[in-house]
Amino acid sequence: MEYDFKKIEANWKKYWTEQQVYKVSNNSNKPKCYVLDMFPYPSGAGLHVGHPLGYIASDIYARYKRLKGYNVLHPMGFDAFGLPAEQYAIETGQHPAVTTEKNIARYREQLDNIGFCYDWSREVRTSDPKYYKWTQWIFLQLFHSWYDRKEQKARPISELISIFEKEGNTNISCPGDETLQFDSATWKNYSEKERRDCLMQYRIAYQGYAQVWWCEALGTVLANDEVVNGVSERGSHPVERKNMRQWFLRITEYAERLLTSLDNLEWSEAMKEMQRNWIGKSVGAEIEFDVVADIPFVEEDGTVNPGHANILLKVFTTRPDTIFGVDFMVLAPEHEMVDTITLPEQRQAVAEYKTYVKSRSERERMSEVKQITGCFTGAYAFHPFTERQVPVWISEYVLAGYGTGAIMAVPSGDERDHAFAKHFNIPITNIFGDKYNGEEAYSSKTGTIENSDFLSGLNIADASEAAINELVKKGIGKRKVNYKLRDAGFSRQRYWGEPFPIVYVEGVPYGIDESPLPASPQGGGGVAQETSARDLSASLSKGEGDVAQLPVELPFVESYKPGPEGQGPLANIKDWVNISLPLGEGRGEASRETNTMPGYAGSSWYFLRYMDPHNDTEFADRKATDYWNQVDLYIGGTEHAVGHLLYSRMWTKALYDLGHIGFDEPFKKLLNQGMIQGSSRFVFEVIFSFISSRSSKSGRIFVSKTHYQKLKLIENDKGKVIEYLVNTGIDKYNIADIRADTTLRIIRHHIDVNLIYGIELNIPAFKEKFGFNEYNGYLLTEENGAYLCDTEIEKMSKSKYNVVNPDDIVAQYGADTFRMYEMFLGPIDVSKPWDTKGIEGVHRFLKKLWRLYFDDSGLIVNDEAPTEAELRVLHKTIKKIGEDIERFSFNTSVSQFMICVNELAGCHKRAILEPLAITICPFAPHIAEELWHQLGPDGYRDGSVVDAPFPLYEERYVTENTKKYPVAVNGKTRIEMEFPMDAEQADVEQVVLADETIQKWLEGKTPKKFIYVKGKMINVVV
RNA sequence: GCCUCGAUGGCGGAAUUGGUAGACGCGCCAGACUCAAAAUCUGGUAUUCGCAAGGAUGUGCAGGUUCGAUUCCUGUUCGAGGCACCA
């Protein structure tokens, strides 16, 4: 019987589906294990062989855990909202819902092909209204909450209102506006609008302003991705940064908790470090500088301010110790005070500079450090201690969003400040003595501060303390902890995303659940509603279209054109946007939020939904979330290091704070999978065209690699190129007729890797694809008739023609081979190129395995007693596979299986082969299922191998009694000697030193030292 | 530019805690079977010197720690991912 993987795999896939083998129950006595993959965005290109890498790893782990007796939750779903679908809709007119549905179907088919043990009854799709109903619900929880800094947790905003009524905000500083202060009487006198504006400064989901890419020509806001080289990707129109009102999540309030609770997570140090750096905690000081504003300037309302204003410029610095080295100040060009302090004669230069900066991305501003730009404002600031006047500049290297958007520049101690000072000829004060050489800033954090009044002679830490104390004493500064982390922009001016459950009444945003009726009519016990406008709230729930109901469904549109003034496409649907409320005279106009939520909204909590995916009254039953709890193993790419993973952590913490779930970290253990890169292939083409006396001629000659290399050397000399081609014997096109006025190009370009075997072109397939005939195209091969290509390792992508579809591999070799080969490629977390060629080895291995059980006549398994050697290899394998899976070293597992099968050659004993079939099940489930059933009575068993117990190894078969030691002299291994495992040093020493070879290497010298590490090695030092 | 990671034969990689570098597989070479091919099986395969025995070199590069370094430290080169609206 041959190994007929097609039949076997189709058969068992059908069985698994019919028997619902992978359906998971929330009720079980077994210990639970939650194994999760980062769900994919279903792109139009389908899966390529890189995508399943992590899925296979998690599948192996999930199957192993199930064999080990766990109740394993292993779900899959789709992150189905996103920009590409909308982009595609704009280009083709197909509705994103339609294309997304199609893409999902394709993904599902491809995933099924590989034999994953997903419980598809739990599938989630973020674009499904039944799902995003709860995304909207969670948004409302965040909208109706504020962050209590003293208790370090989110609390319902109704509790904040109670506090304000009692004591104003004297004890609760305002995160949105630190200067805001009011007492209870003021609060009570506020109008409803004023109150809600004030609350907005506290809400965890709030409205603010952010810079976005604005494209006037397209009339739309663009994503960073859509801006290429400073112009729009579509149409190459100019773009600029524009400030627009947006929704945000106040993730900065969680900065400290997000930072400290990283310590308890089983994530790679690299991953934690990336998150730490992203959060970017730094301790320093906030210092106020007086700015000389002795100049008249025009206020916004047109009145002329005579000057002498007490303008204070706040800066944040991590190096308060360098305060005496301040030689100038720099403001972000967007800083709100720039226009205020700029002198009349500098106004034009400043305005021009600001225009320039508007065209620059943050990335460019941070990365192009060698290009120094800036503009003097004409203003000077007083040094707080010396009263010295230092110039105030603006420059793009200072970002508005970080710290206070202004810095005190210390050129002798900071590289960028130094470069800036040198470039603009600003005199530099040295505060580091001879440590500073005048050429390069001294940015090291060791040494003492000099030339700094009361700080002179102190080390950096002490000087910082002293400086801060003095600043506090003078009332012009304070100790300050700063985070690089910024609040998360949460709105997009797009169609294909979750609509906000927000309604504006007279420009004031309300949650659609704000009603005196139960807060969330769908149940779920939401945060207590908050609005104080009785009539208004009541009306909201009675309004047309029953706005109190979630979800707010995404309306169907036919056009994806942006709305007016940069609004999203939803703004064009007047019927949907405008709501009429029976509010009485002049108050009936209400409208919906027209922004949609960003891609990460749905993915920030999907792991919770899998626990209870069909619940219509809650996002998930508390019993279910308590049972499944944290994700035990989460596998995905590092590209999500700071985006998705940080937002998910924040949402989990918020839901925990508000009492909806019982844990505040979503992913206990995280494993990053590397990328599988594409291995691109290139062909070389000589293209020429010329006009002869009678007609115009053109042609293309595909030359093999060695010809290309030679031609490349003479590329600039057409005569020589023609001569070369003629000498190869090409008579086509009358090459010899080609004269010097020919245009002739030699190019190297991508070729579809599916037309290549190794580096050799599949010539018939290539000719067919390119429509070769006697008039079109010619192939110039190597002497042996082969056409050789160039190779390069690149990202796997359609545009590089290096995409390999898993379906093709599965069709040719089977899913089991594909799964094992992906694992065999290397460590799961390392990027590596795909090479289809190597798959033969793994396929051969499975055939070899098969032949232990079957020969031409059929099953050949017997009941003979196994030998010691056979038992040893089996038990070693069981041990190694278990250990390897626990440490996610799947490539070495595959090697071990190969070693095992090699050593078992000729063994057909049930006692060995039955446990082996179960052991290999996580890796190659189809063949394992077949073998396991074949070994049963009459070639069939009840149930599936996935419920068999993973075999246990016996210690006596895996321990060795003796060890062949490498014996080294002076660290260089010279011979091998065998000793019992329990040999003592004295005995070993005697034998080793008596050895002839060792004697020879000792050259008569006496050993200085004898190193004997039990079970490892022996080293003689002379 | 900044943050994180990586670099080992012709190729993918192994070496789990500082202890025999190159397991396993691909490719290549030789042989067996075959009329032949495919498939399968056996042996060899880091570089270099040597007929051989055996020696020297070798884990991106330059140093350091150690009896001993692919592994730890410092510097450096190159490559990958991320840098806040791709997902």
Characterize the structure shown.
This protein is an alpha+beta fold and 1022 residues long. The chain folds into 6 domains: 31-139 and 600-673, 3-Layer(aba) Sandwich (Rossmann fold); 145-202, no CATH class; 281-483, Isoleucyl-tRNA Synthetase, domain 2 (Alpha-Beta Complex), CATH 3.90.740.10; 676-794, no CATH class; 806-954, Isoleucyl-tRNA Synthetase, Domain 1 (Orthogonal Bundle), CATH 1.10.730; 962-1021, Ubiquitin-like (UB roll) (Roll), CATH 3.10.20. Strands 10, 13, 14, 15, 16, 17 and 18 form a 7-stranded mixed β-sheet that branches. Strands 26, 27, 28, 31, 32 and 33 form a 6-stranded mixed β-sheet that branches. Helix 28 (868-886) packs parallel to helix 30 (910-919). It is globular. Residues 515-529 and 531-547 have low confidence and may be disordered. The structure holds one RNA strand of 87 nucleotides.
